[in-house]
Design a protein that fits this description.
The structure holds two protein chains of two kinds. By secondary structure, chain A is an alpha/beta fold. Chain A has seven helices and seven strands; from the N terminus they run βαβαββββααβααα. In chain A, strands 2-1-3-6-5-7-4 form a seven-stranded mixed sheet, with helices on both faces. In chain A, a hairpin with a 4-residue loop joins β5 and β6. In chain A, α4 packs parallel to α6. The longest helix of chain B is centred in the N-terminal third of the chain and has 47 residues. The radius of gyration of chain B is 24 Å and the shape is extended. Chain B contains five helices and two strands. By secondary structure, chain B is mainly α. In chain B, α1 packs antiparallel against α4 and α3 crosses α4. Classes of the chains: A alpha/beta, B mainly alpha. At the A-B interface, β6, α3, α4 and β7 of A face α1, α2 and α5 of B.
């Protein structure tokens, strides 16, 4: 009987000590729960979320597969919840504060749901940047097949990366645009953006990015 | 001179409209943030209180109501659904003598005050049943129009057909994935 697999990005060479340690901790915690780490090889460059999920689906050993962020630690086996029908999102617990985080850092996705629904309309999102969980969670909610769980993953608190929160970051802006396009096609809630041009901020339009690039070059 | 005045006027109007739009976006964004945080708080509270005397179907119903609203808090009564879930949970906690987390109460109050500007909140009222020609009738609500029943049946049939088709796809996939 093959072991169930947990897929996550393995960044090598890893630019920071924190992430290097976190990856190693995750791998250990996965093996400690009698599961098999299935690593998506990546360099310091960002990769597309759809590629990582597709990789996880290909290597699925059962009726569902699991993807998680590289900097969490597994504290329980998510496959105990697998019913082959429902997408399950897992909220992380921050260490040392013990607070639960609103974002979702691990998903258990039934193969059938991936093949029949998710893979049919994949937004072009960067993994590790903002709002990837908005897409996956909403795609499953819209089909009435989502539920969430707490207490399966821990995360050592650290300062947030610009790609996840800073509105001027190109990866952040790309993900917002792509998510909004997907949301418009599928009738999900969009990320509200204003049009505050004077400082060349706020609007996620590609024209804004173009103007901003022009301003930076002219400086 | 006239052209310059017109251009200035156009710029002023654009700035004014942009300001109005940004203000609107700010309020809508705040509502989305608060509603989504309320959805998260509802689900977290359910998780943190496993001994809360709610049977499983009620817990599931509250969670799914909150989640359904979070797909789009600004449309389809999304925020109102999240609020309904939060208020239901609060009432159940109160009934069992639990302390309501302050962040939950604060967000319920905020959403209750802001949502009516965007979405119709159904007011709870007593149903008044009267007898008419020997039959019980509820003398309220919209008047039924011609073809309303047909429309409702059609919509229900389409919804069920979509659900059956998804279920059969999933069953086929599961069969295929069996070792």
């Amino acid at each position: 009987m093959p072991k169930n697999r947990i897929t996550f990005q393995w960044i090598d060479p890893c630019p920071g000590q924190r992430l290097r340690d976190a990856q190693a901790r995750l791998s250990e915690s996965v093996s400690g729960l009698e599961l098999e780490p299935s690593v998506f090889p990546a360099g310091p460059q960002m990769v597309k979320f759809a590629d990582v999920l597709g990789f996880a689906r290909e290597r699925s050993a059962g009726q569902s597969f699991v993807w998680c962020n590289s900097d969490v630690t597994l504290t329980a086996d998510p496959f105990v919840l697998d019913d082959g029908q429902t997408v399950r999102g897992f909220h992380r617990r921050e260490v040392p504060s013990g607070e639960f985080c609103g974002g979702v850092d691990m998903y258990l996705i039934p193969n059938a749901f991936w093949d029949g629904v998710l893979s049919k309309d994949l937004p072009d999102l960067w993994c590790g940047a903002t709002h990837v969980d908005w897409w996956l969670t909403r795609a499953a909610i819209l089909k009435g097949r989502y539920t969430s769980h707490f207490g399966f993953i821990d995360h050592l608190s650290h300062p947030e990366s610009p790609a996840s929160k800073k509105q001027a970051d190109p990866l952040y802006r790309h993900n917002i645009r792509e998510y909004n396009r997907w949301a418009r096609r599928n009738g999900a809630g969009r990320v509200e953006q204003g049009i505050r041009f004077p400082g060349i901020g706020e609007s996620a339009s590609p024209i804004t990015d173009y103007v901003k690039r022009g301003l930076l070059i002219s400086r | 001179m006239k052209a310059a005045l017109l251009i200035l006027l156009a710029i002023a109007a654009s700035l004014f409209l942009a300001g109005k739009y940004n203000g609107l976006v700010r309020v809508r964004r705040r509502l989305i943030t608060e509603a989504l945080m309320l959805d998260f708080l509802v689900r977290r509270t359910l998780h943190l209180l496993p001994d809360l005397s709610l049977d499983r179907p009620i817990r599931h119903e509250i969670e799914q109501l909150a989640l359904a609203g979070s797909a789009d808090p600004l449309a389809h009564d999304g925020a109102a659904r999240i609020l309904a879930a939060a208020e239901r949970l609060r009432d159940l906690m109160e009934a069992s003598g639990r302390e309501i987390p302050p962040e939950l109460s604060e967000r319920i109050t905020f959403c209750r005050n802001v949502i009516p500007a965007y979405q119709a909140l159904p007011e709870p009222d007593d149903v008044n049943v009267v007898m008419k020609n020997g039959f019980p009738v509820i003398p309220r609500g919209l008047k039924r129009k011609r073809r309303d029943t047909v429309k409702a049946i059609k919509e229900d049939r389409e919804r069920r057909a979509a659900s059956i088709s998804l279920n059969s796809t999933i069953r086929k996939q599961q069969k295929r994935n069996l070792p």
